[in-house]
Amino acid sequence: MSRPPVPQERVYGATITANWVGGAWVQPWIRPNQVTNFWGEAA
Predict the structure, then answer these.
(1) Closest CA to 43 of 19, 30, 16
(2) Does an H or E element contain 18, and which?
(3) Hey, CA dihedral for 20, 23, 25, 27, is it positive or negative?
(4) pLDDT at 14
(5) DSSP assigned state of 38
(6) Interatomic CA distance for residues 35 and 32, integer angstroms
(7) What is the CB neighbour count within 10 angstroms for residue 23?
(8) What is the pLDDT of residue 10?
(9) pLDDT tens track for 1-43
């Protein structure tokens, strides 16, 4: 393969970021550092 590993690393990082953001959006009530819950109420 003539492709460098950098694009794969970027995709991997983007996937981790997407999973983290998705987890924060789908399950905000289990994240202790969330200021508000899913409905915007004070945690």
Answers:
(1) 30
(2) helix 6-26
(3) negative
(4) 76
(5) T
(6) 8
(7) 12
(8) 74
(9) 565 556 777 777 777 777 776 666 666 555 555 555 556 565 4
